[in-house]
Amino acid sequence: MCTASPPAVTTYRELRASGFSRSKITEGLADGSLISPRRGVYERVGVCADIKTAAAHGGWVACVSAAQHLGLWVAEHGDGLHVGLRAHGRAFSHPECSCVAHWSDPDDDERSAFGVPSVRVVLRQILRCQGLEAFFVALESALRRRTLSKTDLEWVRRSTNADAREAIAFARSDADSGLESLLRWRLRRRGLSVRTQQSITSVGRVDFVIGERLIVEVDGAPNHDGESHRHKDLVRDANAAAWGFVTLRFDYALVVHDWETVELAILGLVDRGLHLA
After folding, report:
1. What is the pTM of this model?
2. pLDDT in tens, 51-106
């Protein structure tokens, strides 16, 4: 995630409104502190690559690309840079373009010409572009980070659809990672008792307890790579077994790219009743 401000892309009008005189703009172009990639558009030195690319395309970062800039958790999506464009604007060709266009709605938030949209607008874009699951994961990430106000959440309810409103009702603010959100969302139709962030004697806090005795941990690579972390996980699992628990542990690749294996492992233990006391 990179920072768009104070270095930013701006229009001539916005630059003048911020206090830059014509002579100051000319000086900035001369000394290299400002760059003009095309007429009426100016880049301050240090602007990050994504925002610079979006501006070259004629817009601003949007959807999952904007979510990453806002610090929200998103899974790998394999798309190019997602770029927002004005409803009656135009896209510009530029080298190695793989941008995904999002044409803005009339009720999108007011912001600077090339500024990152608000969380609520980004969530609606994700719903339309990436689908309900990606929307839910980003939503829980926003709730966890407290970047979505009650007013914003109500706006999302009004501005989306019935499926999104069901996802909002199911969402929580205590998901520790997007992997946890994914697992809860994908298990929701199975009729299981799934409790999150539970404290277990001699083990500590675990990600999930299904039923009474099945612990499920989802491990993001940054937190569980290396021998020391692996050893700690094994100690936790052994202590859990001593207290009558069964532990399943999955990493990012399994949850995101091989969900069938994850689900079969969980349901296999559930079908044998190993989640019950």
Report:
1. 0.84
2. 888 888 888 899 999 999 999 999 887 778 999 998 877 888 888 888 999 998 87
Q: Are 7 and 45 in contact (CB under 8 A)?
A: yes
pLDDT level of residue 211 (50, 70, 90 thresholds)? very high
Two tokens at 1? 């995630």
* Residues 189-211: b if buried by 16+ CB within 10 A, e if exposed: eeeeebebeeebeebeebbbbbb
CATH architecture of 178-271: 3-Layer(aba) Sandwich (3.40)
CATH 3.40.960.10 residue spans of the chain: 178-271
- Give CA–CA dist 144/133, Å, rounded: 17
